[in-house]
Amino acid sequence: MSSIYDIDIYNPIEDDLEAFQNTYIMSPELWRKFNIDDLAGVDFSKWKRIKLIESGSFSDKLSTIPTKYGGIYIYCIEPEIVPNTGCYVMYVGMATKTRSENLRARIKSYSKQMGNEYDRYRLHRLFEKWEDYVYVHYLSIDASKEIIVALEDRLIGAFGKPPCNAEVCVKSVKKAVKAFN
To answer: Most exposed of 12, 71, 115, 118 (fewest Cβ within 10 Å)?
Structure first.
């Protein structure tokens, strides 16, 4: 009878593990400095979460995301190995409320990054490599574009620039992040 220690769960690994690597900046200082007290209309108790991709395409559950407002959305990888252990923040984005844009429309607009017609390689890679584990966390916000942009910038800065975000707008954080790249 073999023991559980005789089983090599990592043999064979068919994937190129280097293709799954990402760099994260985890700075308690940035987390402590994160503050939204001056952002009227932002209620962090209202965050919601939906599995983004089901059966190879964007989930029908995305239709439950409100269209009345803009807001913030975060794409995360959640391994689902141990419940409630967190996620890897991969991308922070925002949507304003205009005639053609709202939170649901903005999140759903990324579905084109899944096929061969993609134009944003980092998001295409996220959806293709981790599709079964990608969730969208979103916060609908009834506030001005300036408030939404400020919150997006602060979140990107607090996370030290998630791997799929191209830019950090907060100058002090941008300078610090360059030290890691």
So the answer is: 12
